[in-house]
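Fold this sequence, please.
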Amino acid sequence: MTVSLEEYFRTTFEDKLLVKMPEREDDHLTPATRLLEKRREMQEVEQALAAQKEEFQMKMESLQQRREELERKEYQLKESLLKFDKFLKENDAKRARAVKKAEEEKKLSKQKDSEISKLTEDVGELSKGRDQVQSRLEKHVIYHRYLERVLEQADEFHEIREVIDRHGTLVTTHEDLLEREQKNQDAMEREKVRLAKFLEEKNNEIMSYNNELANLQTQLDNAQASAVKWEAIWTHIKNTAAKKTLLLGRIKMATHNLFQLVNRHLKQAVEMENTHEQLSKIQTFILDLTQITQEIKRAETAAGTTSIFGGSSS
Protein backbone atom coordinates (compact mmCIF):
# COMPACT_ATOMS: atom_id res chain seq x y z
CA MET A 1 0.00 0.00 0.00
CA THR A 2 2.90 2.37 0.79
CA VAL A 3 4.56 1.68 -2.54
CA SER A 4 1.35 2.41 -4.48
CA LEU A 5 0.78 5.65 -2.54
CA GLU A 6 4.34 6.83 -3.15
CA GLU A 7 4.14 5.87 -6.83
CA TYR A 8 0.88 7.73 -7.11
CA PHE A 9 2.22 11.01 -5.70
CA ARG A 10 5.45 10.79 -7.68
CA THR A 11 3.49 10.20 -10.91
CA THR A 12 1.13 13.02 -10.06
CA PHE A 13 3.89 15.53 -9.43
CA GLU A 14 6.18 14.47 -12.25
CA ASP A 15 3.59 13.82 -14.97
CA LYS A 16 0.73 16.19 -14.15
CA LEU A 17 1.84 18.94 -11.78
CA LEU A 18 5.08 20.07 -13.45
CA VAL A 19 4.38 23.10 -15.59
CA LYS A 20 5.86 22.91 -19.10
CA MET A 21 6.07 25.73 -21.49
CA PRO A 22 3.89 25.17 -24.51
CA GLU A 23 5.77 23.95 -27.55
CA ARG A 24 5.24 24.99 -31.11
CA GLU A 25 4.37 21.48 -32.16
CA ASP A 26 1.07 21.69 -30.22
CA ASP A 27 -0.08 24.66 -32.19
CA HIS A 28 -2.89 22.64 -33.64
CA LEU A 29 -4.59 22.67 -30.18
CA THR A 30 -6.53 25.76 -29.30
CA PRO A 31 -5.66 27.57 -26.04
CA ALA A 32 -9.13 26.92 -24.72
CA THR A 33 -8.73 23.18 -25.30
CA ARG A 34 -5.36 23.11 -23.53
CA LEU A 35 -6.78 25.16 -20.66
CA LEU A 36 -9.68 22.76 -20.22
CA GLU A 37 -7.33 19.79 -20.36
CA LYS A 38 -5.07 21.32 -17.71
CA ARG A 39 -8.04 22.18 -15.54
CA ARG A 40 -9.33 18.61 -15.82
CA GLU A 41 -5.91 17.27 -14.87
CA MET A 42 -5.66 19.64 -11.90
CA GLN A 43 -9.15 18.64 -10.69
CA GLU A 44 -8.20 14.98 -10.85
CA VAL A 45 -5.02 15.63 -8.89
CA GLU A 46 -6.87 17.71 -6.29
CA GLN A 47 -9.56 15.06 -5.91
CA ALA A 48 -6.97 12.30 -5.54
CA LEU A 49 -5.01 14.31 -2.99
CA ALA A 50 -8.14 15.17 -1.01
CA ALA A 51 -9.19 11.52 -0.99
CA GLN A 52 -5.74 10.42 0.19
CA LYS A 53 -5.70 13.11 2.88
CA GLU A 54 -9.16 12.13 4.11
CA GLU A 55 -8.19 8.45 4.15
CA PHE A 56 -5.02 9.28 6.09
CA GLN A 57 -6.98 11.35 8.64
CA MET A 58 -9.51 8.53 9.12
CA LYS A 59 -6.73 6.00 9.66
CA MET A 60 -5.06 8.27 12.23
CA GLU A 61 -8.34 8.67 14.14
CA SER A 62 -8.97 4.92 14.00
CA LEU A 63 -5.47 4.17 15.31
CA GLN A 64 -5.92 6.68 18.15
CA GLN A 65 -9.25 5.14 19.16
CA ARG A 66 -7.69 1.65 19.02
CA ARG A 67 -4.79 2.78 21.21
CA GLU A 68 -7.15 4.29 23.81
CA GLU A 69 -9.22 1.09 23.80
CA LEU A 70 -6.09 -1.02 24.31
CA GLU A 71 -4.97 1.17 27.22
CA ARG A 72 -8.41 0.88 28.82
CA LYS A 73 -8.44 -2.92 28.47
CA GLU A 74 -4.91 -3.15 29.86
CA TYR A 75 -5.97 -1.12 32.91
CA GLN A 76 -9.06 -3.32 33.43
CA LEU A 77 -6.93 -6.45 33.14
CA LYS A 78 -4.46 -5.16 35.75
CA GLU A 79 -7.32 -4.28 38.10
CA SER A 80 -8.82 -7.78 37.67
CA LEU A 81 -5.47 -9.42 38.39
CA LEU A 82 -4.99 -7.31 41.54
CA LYS A 83 -8.48 -8.20 42.81
CA PHE A 84 -7.92 -11.87 42.08
CA ASP A 85 -4.55 -11.83 43.88
CA LYS A 86 -6.23 -10.25 46.91
CA PHE A 87 -8.97 -12.91 46.76
CA LEU A 88 -6.37 -15.72 46.71
CA LYS A 89 -4.51 -14.24 49.67
CA GLU A 90 -7.72 -14.02 51.70
CA ASN A 91 -8.59 -17.63 50.85
CA ASP A 92 -5.09 -18.77 51.85
CA ALA A 93 -5.50 -17.00 55.18
CA LYS A 94 -8.90 -18.66 55.75
CA ARG A 95 -7.48 -22.04 54.83
CA ALA A 96 -4.53 -21.54 57.23
CA ARG A 97 -6.92 -20.66 60.04
CA ALA A 98 -9.09 -23.69 59.26
CA VAL A 99 -6.06 -26.00 59.25
CA LYS A 100 -4.85 -24.55 62.53
CA LYS A 101 -8.27 -25.00 64.10
CA ALA A 102 -8.47 -28.59 62.84
CA GLU A 103 -5.04 -29.32 64.34
CA GLU A 104 -6.12 -27.86 67.67
CA GLU A 105 -9.30 -29.93 67.64
CA LYS A 106 -7.32 -33.02 66.73
CA LYS A 107 -5.00 -32.35 69.64
CA LEU A 108 -8.02 -31.91 71.94
CA SER A 109 -9.42 -35.21 70.64
CA LYS A 110 -6.17 -36.97 71.48
CA GLN A 111 -6.29 -35.46 74.96
CA LYS A 112 -9.84 -36.77 75.44
CA ASP A 113 -8.73 -40.18 74.25
CA SER A 114 -5.94 -40.09 76.82
CA GLU A 115 -8.41 -39.16 79.56
CA ILE A 116 -10.72 -41.98 78.48
CA SER A 117 -7.84 -44.42 78.58
CA LYS A 118 -6.94 -43.27 82.07
CA LEU A 119 -10.55 -43.62 83.22
CA THR A 120 -10.65 -47.09 81.70
CA GLU A 121 -7.54 -48.02 83.64
CA ASP A 122 -9.13 -46.65 86.83
CA VAL A 123 -12.26 -48.69 86.17
CA GLY A 124 -10.08 -51.74 85.67
CA GLU A 125 -8.36 -51.11 88.97
CA LEU A 126 -11.70 -50.62 90.73
CA SER A 127 -13.06 -53.80 89.17
CA LYS A 128 -10.01 -55.61 90.36
CA GLY A 129 -10.52 -54.22 93.86
CA ARG A 130 -14.18 -55.20 93.71
CA ASP A 131 -13.29 -58.74 92.78
CA GLN A 132 -10.88 -58.91 95.64
CA VAL A 133 -13.49 -57.67 98.10
CA GLN A 134 -16.06 -60.08 96.70
CA SER A 135 -13.62 -62.90 97.12
CA ARG A 136 -12.96 -61.84 100.66
CA LEU A 137 -16.68 -61.71 101.38
CA GLU A 138 -17.15 -65.19 100.03
CA LYS A 139 -14.34 -66.31 102.17
CA HIS A 140 -15.96 -64.68 105.17
CA VAL A 141 -19.26 -66.45 104.44
CA ILE A 142 -17.50 -69.70 104.16
CA TYR A 143 -15.83 -69.16 107.48
CA HIS A 144 -18.92 -67.79 109.25
CA ARG A 145 -19.39 -70.83 111.31
CA TYR A 146 -15.73 -70.95 111.89
CA LEU A 147 -15.95 -67.38 113.25
CA GLU A 148 -18.73 -68.41 115.59
CA ARG A 149 -16.61 -71.15 116.90
CA VAL A 150 -13.74 -68.75 117.10
CA LEU A 151 -16.01 -66.29 118.97
CA GLU A 152 -16.68 -68.96 121.53
CA GLN A 153 -13.03 -69.44 122.03
CA ALA A 154 -11.56 -65.98 121.23
CA ASP A 155 -11.24 -63.10 123.58
CA GLU A 156 -11.30 -60.41 120.87
CA PHE A 157 -15.02 -60.69 120.07
CA HIS A 158 -17.29 -60.99 122.97
CA GLU A 159 -20.55 -60.98 120.96
CA ILE A 160 -21.64 -62.08 117.52
CA ARG A 161 -22.85 -58.51 116.94
CA GLU A 162 -19.28 -57.40 116.79
CA VAL A 163 -18.70 -59.87 114.00
CA ILE A 164 -21.89 -58.66 112.23
CA ASP A 165 -20.81 -55.04 112.61
CA ARG A 166 -17.55 -55.99 111.15
CA HIS A 167 -19.41 -57.63 108.30
CA GLY A 168 -21.64 -54.58 107.90
CA THR A 169 -18.56 -52.43 107.63
CA LEU A 170 -17.27 -54.67 104.89
CA VAL A 171 -20.65 -54.54 103.08
CA THR A 172 -20.72 -50.76 103.26
CA THR A 173 -17.27 -50.64 101.83
CA HIS A 174 -18.36 -52.97 99.08
CA GLU A 175 -21.41 -50.80 98.28
CA ASP A 176 -19.25 -47.74 98.20
CA LEU A 177 -17.01 -49.44 95.75
CA LEU A 178 -19.96 -50.51 93.63
CA GLU A 179 -21.39 -46.97 93.68
CA ARG A 180 -18.04 -45.54 92.68
CA GLU A 181 -17.79 -48.08 89.92
CA GLN A 182 -21.27 -47.21 88.69
CA LYS A 183 -20.41 -43.52 88.74
CA ASN A 184 -17.24 -44.23 86.83
CA GLN A 185 -19.21 -46.31 84.34
CA ASP A 186 -21.75 -43.51 83.90
CA ALA A 187 -18.99 -40.93 83.54
CA MET A 188 -17.23 -43.11 81.00
CA GLU A 189 -20.46 -43.55 79.01
CA ARG A 190 -21.07 -39.80 79.03
CA GLU A 191 -17.51 -39.19 77.88
CA LYS A 192 -17.94 -41.74 75.12
CA VAL A 193 -21.16 -40.04 73.97
CA ARG A 194 -19.48 -36.63 74.08
CA LEU A 195 -16.47 -37.97 72.22
CA ALA A 196 -18.64 -39.56 69.53
CA LYS A 197 -20.60 -36.33 69.14
CA PHE A 198 -17.40 -34.30 69.10
CA LEU A 199 -15.81 -36.53 66.45
CA GLU A 200 -18.96 -36.41 64.33
CA GLU A 201 -19.08 -32.60 64.47
CA LYS A 202 -15.40 -32.28 63.62
CA ASN A 203 -15.68 -34.75 60.78
CA ASN A 204 -18.58 -32.75 59.37
CA GLU A 205 -16.55 -29.56 59.68
CA ILE A 206 -13.58 -31.19 57.96
CA MET A 207 -15.83 -32.37 55.12
CA SER A 208 -17.25 -28.86 54.82
CA TYR A 209 -13.75 -27.38 54.69
CA ASN A 210 -12.71 -29.95 52.10
CA ASN A 211 -15.73 -29.07 49.93
CA GLU A 212 -14.98 -25.38 50.28
CA LEU A 213 -11.34 -26.02 49.43
CA ALA A 214 -12.38 -27.99 46.32
CA ASN A 215 -14.65 -25.13 45.23
CA LEU A 216 -11.84 -22.62 45.75
CA GLN A 217 -9.47 -24.83 43.76
CA THR A 218 -12.01 -24.96 40.93
CA GLN A 219 -12.32 -21.18 41.00
CA LEU A 220 -8.53 -20.89 40.96
CA ASP A 221 -8.28 -23.21 37.92
CA ASN A 222 -10.98 -21.22 36.11
CA ALA A 223 -9.24 -17.94 36.95
CA GLN A 224 -5.91 -19.28 35.70
CA ALA A 225 -7.54 -20.45 32.46
CA SER A 226 -9.16 -17.02 32.07
CA ALA A 227 -5.81 -15.33 32.70
CA VAL A 228 -4.18 -17.47 29.97
CA LYS A 229 -7.02 -16.59 27.60
CA TRP A 230 -6.69 -12.85 28.28
CA GLU A 231 -2.93 -13.08 27.93
CA ALA A 232 -3.38 -14.59 24.45
CA ILE A 233 -5.87 -11.85 23.55
CA TRP A 234 -3.44 -9.20 24.81
CA THR A 235 -0.63 -10.72 22.69
CA HIS A 236 -2.90 -10.65 19.63
CA ILE A 237 -3.80 -7.01 20.35
CA LYS A 238 -0.14 -6.04 20.68
CA ASN A 239 0.66 -7.78 17.39
CA THR A 240 -2.22 -5.98 15.66
CA ALA A 241 -1.08 -2.65 17.12
CA ALA A 242 2.43 -3.32 15.84
CA LYS A 243 1.10 -3.91 12.30
CA LYS A 244 -0.91 -0.68 12.48
CA THR A 245 2.17 1.16 13.73
CA LEU A 246 4.20 -0.26 10.82
CA LEU A 247 1.53 0.89 8.36
CA LEU A 248 1.52 4.36 9.92
CA GLY A 249 5.31 4.48 9.60
CA ARG A 250 5.09 3.63 5.93
CA ILE A 251 2.50 6.36 5.36
CA LYS A 252 4.75 8.86 7.13
CA MET A 253 7.70 7.72 5.00
CA ALA A 254 5.69 8.23 1.78
CA THR A 255 4.60 11.67 2.97
CA HIS A 256 8.20 12.54 3.83
CA ASN A 257 9.42 11.43 0.38
CA LEU A 258 6.73 13.55 -1.27
CA PHE A 259 7.73 16.47 0.93
CA GLN A 260 11.37 16.06 -0.13
CA LEU A 261 10.25 16.05 -3.79
CA VAL A 262 8.38 19.33 -3.24
CA ASN A 263 11.48 20.84 -1.59
CA ARG A 264 13.63 19.83 -4.57
CA HIS A 265 11.17 21.49 -6.98
CA LEU A 266 11.12 24.59 -4.80
CA LYS A 267 14.92 24.38 -4.34
CA GLN A 268 14.53 24.68 -0.57
CA ALA A 269 16.17 22.82 2.34
CA VAL A 270 13.38 23.11 4.91
CA GLU A 271 13.23 20.19 7.37
CA MET A 272 9.95 19.26 9.05
CA GLU A 273 9.38 16.20 11.21
CA ASN A 274 5.65 16.65 11.74
CA THR A 275 3.61 14.76 9.13
CA HIS A 276 0.68 17.20 9.32
CA GLU A 277 3.01 20.11 8.63
CA GLN A 278 4.55 18.24 5.68
CA LEU A 279 1.06 17.61 4.21
CA SER A 280 0.21 21.28 4.73
CA LYS A 281 3.38 22.26 2.89
CA ILE A 282 2.48 19.90 0.03
CA GLN A 283 -1.05 21.33 -0.15
CA THR A 284 0.33 24.89 -0.30
CA PHE A 285 2.67 23.88 -3.11
CA ILE A 286 -0.22 22.36 -5.08
CA LEU A 287 -2.35 25.46 -4.61
CA ASP A 288 0.50 27.74 -5.72
CA LEU A 289 1.17 25.53 -8.69
CA THR A 290 -2.51 25.62 -9.61
CA GLN A 291 -2.59 29.40 -9.40
CA ILE A 292 0.53 29.70 -11.59
CA THR A 293 -0.98 27.35 -14.15
CA GLN A 294 -4.18 29.35 -14.23
CA GLU A 295 -2.27 32.60 -14.72
CA ILE A 296 -0.27 31.08 -17.58
CA LYS A 297 -3.47 29.85 -19.19
CA ARG A 298 -5.08 33.26 -18.88
CA ALA A 299 -2.00 34.86 -20.42
CA GLU A 300 -2.08 32.38 -23.29
CA THR A 301 -5.77 33.04 -23.78
CA ALA A 302 -5.22 36.78 -23.82
CA ALA A 303 -2.32 36.42 -26.29
CA GLY A 304 -4.41 34.21 -28.52
CA THR A 305 -7.28 36.66 -28.51
CA THR A 306 -5.01 39.58 -29.35
CA SER A 307 -3.52 37.58 -32.22
CA ILE A 308 -6.96 36.82 -33.60
CA PHE A 309 -8.11 40.39 -33.46
CA GLY A 310 -4.85 41.56 -34.98
CA GLY A 311 -5.20 39.19 -37.92
CA SER A 312 -8.77 40.37 -38.55
CA SER A 313 -7.73 44.00 -38.62
CA SER A 314 -5.02 43.40 -41.20
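The CA atoms of residues 20 and 234 lie 55 Å apart. DSSP finds five helices and no strands in the chain.
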